[in-house]
Amino acid sequence: MAEMKTAIGLMSGTSMDGIDVALVRTDGEAVVERGPFLSVPYEPAFRDRLKQALEDAKAIRHRDERPDDLSRMERALTLRHAEAVALFLQQEKLKREDVDLIGFHGQTVLHRPDEALTVQLGDGPLLAAETGIDVVYDMRANDMLHGGQGAPLVPVYHQALAHQIPAADWPVCFVNIGGISNLTFLDRDGTIIGFDSGPGNTLIDQWVEAHAGIPYDDGGRIASEGGVIMGLAERYLDNPFFTASKRRSLDRNDFRPPEGHEAELSDGARTLAYVSSAAILKSAGHLPSSPKTYVICGGGRLNRSIMGDLVTLAGEKGATVLTAEQAGFNGDAMEAEAWAYLAVRSARGLPLTFPGTTGVREPVSGGVLEPSALLRTERLMLTRWQDGDEEQLAHLHGAPETSIHVGHGQPWEPDYARQRLAGWRAGFQRYGISTLKLMTADGSDFVGRAGIGWYEDAQVHQLAYSIVQSEWGKGYASEIASALVGWFFEAEIGERLEAMAHVDNAASLHILKKTGFREIGIRSVRGEPCRFFEMLRSDYADLAKASPSRNPTS
């Protein structure tokens, strides 16, 4: 059984109303434990900036371009996501060490599947640096590289949830009504099909904002006072999107709201609500069989007019319509939950998209993993261990000369490395400090391991480090040891820090003395003589005053 991971999902959808934050524990497959949820709204001025970003993004021809104000917008958006994570952790009384991954969607500002071009604003490395948590981002691009539409990505999460629905109610169709609506069809034989089904809330939002000065039709109140202008509705439903043999994903600009003269406020809102519902049923006509149950998620399920039309139209086909809550889920949280789930799948290399969901040629994974730097120096960074790192650790201590003074004194095999990793990870989870993975500052190369551990029995914090043999002689050990000492005392972790080295380990003995430790005696460790050293807070204060550069970069 795969290891369970705790992940936070962040979603800023096409409605651009704010950031949804959700937590799940999952193995990235069939096991999903849904946790708390938080929605952090954008202030009106920031929503206006996002709308301008949609206009600026129209000039993009390559996905890494950020014309006009988009670069500044991306940074501002990312920092708001970091603030949302901090608020969520505070609200739920969680530490960053409690979370393994963040799944970061970002804000879609351009989606042109026919050009294999999709752009989500969001700086994964910046988010990882700000939160101190590993981030998986940019999860749509790899699908497009393999011939997919880049959307929808949520179906595989729907598949994991659907096992809670009784077999008699299948086939089941999950429908997310956000700015754009999308559906996931699931059958008991393992069939999974997903595609965008048409405009969801985006036309209604644009309509009421333009004609009533409010961002959305809360609960469908405006629509409830109007009537459907069937000729206008049919104009939308006659769009070739609904009859095309190939399903494609939609951009927010593929459907435009009516002109002001075509309807008064409430009739326009009512007509567009009907379009949202009818579009779902019309698109469902492309499915291999009729669903027995529709589970409605997203903000659109709160619009009474949309839901009333859905119940009527689906009922005509013998299907039942349930809100996500009636099915036992959280309709507001589901997309953010999905991004947490997808982050775990991505980190495990599992497929995110399938031929039946995005049209990709074969099931493919995706996403970019950005490790968080828990401590950074000019050349190095410390980050958390990942699944599979036991191979690198075994290589680190795989030769007699690199293992003689560490562990059991013999070259490390993967199983032994896995045991040590499990201990370090458990220590980090419990205390927030431990031996961590040492990488070059850009995250490209494995350098070794380093950190500070808390030894409960001896009631002592102890410094440790080991450098890959091929990197010896570059001063990495001195650099990370000095940075760890600085971090330990500057962060006020403790009053005393200890270190040790085998009496024959001349290199380590030299580094500890150079770093400012003073020897306090020789003791036996696993039957071997070792020299022990200590540094007190007062010692560090004197050293830092004499050499301010000792302080860690971050």
TrEMBL record:
<comment type="pathway">
    <text>Amino-sugar metabolism; 1,6-anhydro-N-acetylmuramate degradation.</text>
</comment>
<dbReference type="InterPro" id="IPR005338">
    <property type="entry name" value="Anhydro_N_Ac-Mur_kinase"/>
</dbReference>
<keyword id="KW-0547">Nucleotide-binding</keyword>
<feature type="binding site">
    <location>
        <begin position="13"/>
        <end position="20"/>
    </location>
    <ligand>
        <name>ATP</name>
    </ligand>
</feature>
<keyword id="KW-0808">Transferase</keyword>
<protein>
    <recommendedName>
        <fullName>Anhydro-N-acetylmuramic acid kinase</fullName>
        <ecNumber>2.7.1.170</ecNumber>
    </recommendedName>
</protein>
<dbReference type="InterPro" id="IPR000182">
    <property type="entry name" value="GNAT_dom"/>
</dbReference>
<dbReference type="InterPro" id="IPR043129">
    <property type="entry name" value="ATPase_NBD"/>
</dbReference>
<dbReference type="InterPro" id="IPR016181">
    <property type="entry name" value="Acyl_CoA_acyltransferase"/>
</dbReference>
<dbReference type="GO" id="GO:0016301">
    <property type="term" value="F:kinase activity"/>
</dbReference>
<keyword id="KW-0067">ATP-binding</keyword>
<keyword id="KW-0418">Kinase</keyword>
<feature type="domain" description="N-acetyltransferase">
    <location>
        <begin position="380"/>
        <end position="540"/>
    </location>
</feature>
<dbReference type="Pfam" id="PF03702">
    <property type="entry name" value="AnmK"/>
</dbReference>
<comment type="function">
    <text>Catalyzes the specific phosphorylation of 1,6-anhydro-N-acetylmuramic acid (anhMurNAc) with the simultaneous cleavage of the 1,6-anhydro ring, generating MurNAc-6-P. Is required for the utilization of anhMurNAc either imported from the medium or derived from its own cell wall murein, and thus plays a role in cell wall recycling.</text>
</comment>
<comment type="pathway">
    <text>Cell wall biogenesis; peptidoglycan recycling.</text>
</comment>
<dbReference type="Pfam" id="PF13302">
    <property type="entry name" value="Acetyltransf_3"/>
</dbReference>
<comment type="similarity">
    <text>Belongs to the anhydro-N-acetylmuramic acid kinase family.</text>
</comment>
<keyword id="KW-0119">Carbohydrate metabolism</keyword>
